[in-house]
Specification:
The protein is α+β, with helices and mostly antiparallel strands and 206 residues long. It has helices spanning 15-26, 93-99, 128-131, 165-172; strands at 4-11, 31-36, 41-49, 52-59, 82-89, 106-112, 115-121, 135-139, 154-162, 182-186, 191-198, 201-205. The protein has four helices and twelve strands, in the order E-H-E-E-E-E-H-E-E-H-E-E-H-E-E-E. It is globular, with a radius of gyration of 16 Å.
């Protein structure tokens, strides 16, 4: 089954702060995104590859917070922006849900402007393996990268650090087709780092 990395998620307490941080690191301009009414968040984005992008996500101060925990652990965001999560695209979300860890969450439907998608969102807001397991998405509209301009960026590799690397590898084994650029290493503190190719050279974002 053709799973693939769909996008990376930088989480921030303030969208402008997160956007400025990414723009400085990658020496490029992010495009204005929009609001996610169901989650009380908003975003900006930049294209990495033909079907991969990077998103900055933050609480929307003008939106009412939902009655449930928001996605990507955004309710606990604090401190400087960071690479908080990654997302894998699935052609059959129900089948992906069955293959994923039991605490991956429930399937929710979303719409923002021309974009329609379904995503598995954890009840706690925290993805399995301390946010190191990816969110799973199924698109029902043209992909966002089609409306993002070419920025001269590309995802070279994604490095995932976790105290239980073997358990994480086992959880990700059904999604092996999305693992081409992924490396999992053991470390005391869970976290993500991505190497992004830019016109000026490679940049690590974490």
């Amino acid at each position: 089954m053709p799973y693939r990395i769909d996008h990376l998620v930088v989480t921030a307490a303030d969208l402008n702060q997160g956007r400025n941080w990414v723009e400085t690191l990658l020496e490029t301009r992010l495009e204005t995104g929009g609001q996610h009414d169901e989650m009380g968040t908003h975003n900006s984005g930049v294209r990495l590859d033909p079907k991969t992008y990077l998103e900055v996500l933050a609480p929307d101060p003008e939106a009412e917070a939902p009655a449930w925990r928001r996605w990507f652990d955004i309710d606990n965001v604090g401190g400087p922006p960071k690479l908080g999560s990654w997302v894998v695209s699935c052609p059959d979300l129900e089948e992906a849900w069955e293959r994923a860890p039991s605490d991956v969450g429930r399937i929710m439907s979303f719409r923002r402007g021309p974009y329609i998608w379904r995503m598995i969102v954890p009840w706690s807001g925290v993805l399995p393996f301390d946010n190191c397991f990816p969110a799973l998405v199924e698109w029902h509209s043209p992909h966002p990268t089609l409306s993002l301009p070419e920025a001269g960026l590309s995802l070279r590799r994604l490095r995932i650090t976790h105290p239980n690397p073997n358990g994480l590898r086992a959880a990700l084994s059904p999604f092996v087709s999305a693992m081409e650029h992924v490396r999992i290493v053991e470390g005391t503190k869970p976290g993500l780092s991505a190497e992004i190719g830019t016109p000026s050279g490679e940049v690590w974002i974490s």
